[in-house]
UniProtKB/TrEMBL annotation:
Record keywords, A-Z: Bacterial flagellum, Cell membrane, Cell projection, Chemotaxis, Cilium, Flagellar rotation, Flagellum, Membrane
Membrane recorded as keyword: yes
Name under which the protein is recorded: Flagellar motor switch protein FliM
SUPFAM superfamilies in the record: CheC-like, Surface presentation of antigens (SPOA)
One GO term of the biological process aspect: bacterial-type flagellum-dependent swarming motility
Family membership: Belongs to the FliM family.
Subcellular location, record wording: Bacterial flagellum basal body; Cell membrane
Top-level taxonomic group: Bacteria
Gene Ontology terms for molecular function: cytoskeletal motor activity
């Protein structure tokens, strides 16, 4: 039965109907059993959980923001891209859903196996091409007779755009997108079997006054090695990596040979800008510190020690006398 809560009067009426023979308890049980059976289409296998689909949506929301920034800079016009939907469907259904002639960019994503398709609606593709060529961003659908120059310009633009997927996916996997193929007819594109489950992320795209869709098609075989990383548990867990003794030893060696600037401050003085402009060779600037007072020794810009000046082997030197009180606390103030 449904999760609806019955009132006391409805319960009394139901019991009265059962007692009077107006309703059959066996028929109610049979009806309840029939409701529990769900039709499952094996041609439309759902191989991703809702949790994994949500993770993919979050990844591509970041990708959409990166594309918005990239295309805005490249096309020098208003661009707005956002995720419209993320669905898992058979590959055959994806091919049937896109135009017969469109812009298809097939990418390899090593170290993952398989290919990812970025399908760009012709309206959007030609608006981009027109802007790159110096036009106003007018869309002219002529996919069937693209010139070699137009194909080269488009493929270069989309290859650079898709490289942003590397940054969007960095929290899940380190990939290196490479454009493997540029196609205009989806019927010639058989990446996987027709019944293979793919995730299609549709991006609403607005370029100046032209709007359309960009679809990213990711087959299950590509995501299979990293599916566990798409769960909420992976995103939320805090993994603490313990450093092995060898790593600690290497870090200590590198720290010990790191160079630090050491400054012995002889004193300070304050002069006016007029006096500064009139300084000449041979002028003397009087410091506000007596030669009898110890010097402040700074490590970087932080006062750490006090010392006294002297000579070692005819070279100027500073002898450290004591640690400066409060010197350690200065690190927190910087």
């Amino acid at each position: 039965m449904s999760g609806e809560v019955l009132s006391q009067s409805e319960i009394d009426a139901l019991l009265a109907a059962l007692s009077a023979g107006e309703m059959d308890a066996e028929e109610l049980k049979k009806e309840e059993a029939d409701k529990r059976v769900k039709v499952y289409d094996f041609k439309r296998a759902l191989r991703f959980s809702k949790d994994q689909i949500r993770s993919l949506t979050r990844i591509h929301e970041n990708f959409a923001r990166l594309l918005t920034t990239f295309f805005s800079a490249q096309l020098r016009t208003y661009v707005q891209i956002s995720v419209a939907s993320a669905d898992q469907i058979p590959y055959e259904e994806f091919i049937r859903s896109i135009p017969k002639m469109t812009i298809l960019n097939v990418f390899e994503v090593p170290p993952l196996d398989g290919h990812i398709i970025m399908e760009v609606n012709p309206n959007i593709a030609y608006a981009m091409l027109d802007r790159v060529m110096g036009g106003r961003g007018v869309s002219l659908n002529k996919v069937d007779n693209l010139t070699e120059i137009e194909m080269r310009i488009m493929s270069n633009l989309f290859e650079k755009a898709f490289s942003n997927l590397r940054d969007a996916w960095e929290s899940v996997a380190e990939i290196d997108p490479i454009l493997a193929e540029f196609e205009v007819n989806p019927q010639f594109l058989q990446m996987v079997s027709p019944n293979e489950t793919v995730v299609v992320i549709s991006l609403n795209t607005q370029i100046a006054e032209t709007s359309g869709m960009i679809n990213v098609c990711i087959p299950h075989v590509v995501l299979e090695p990293i599916i566990p990383r798409l769960s909420v548990h992976y995103w939320m867990q805090t993994q603490k990596k313990e450093r092995v003794p060898e790593e600690i030893e290497v870090l200590e060696k590198r720290i010990k040979v790191a160079k630090l600037p050491v400054i012995a401050e002889l004193g300070t003085s304050t002069i006016t800008i007029q006096e500064f402009l009139q300084l000449d060779v041979g002028d003397v600037i009087q410091l506000d510190q007596s030669i009898q007072e110890p010097l402040i020794i700074k490590i970087g810009d932080v006062p750490k020690f006090i010392g006294q000046p002297g000579k070692v082997n005819k070279r100027l030197a500073v002898q450290v006398l004591d640690t400066l009180k409060g010197g350690e606390d200065n690190d927190d103030e910087r």
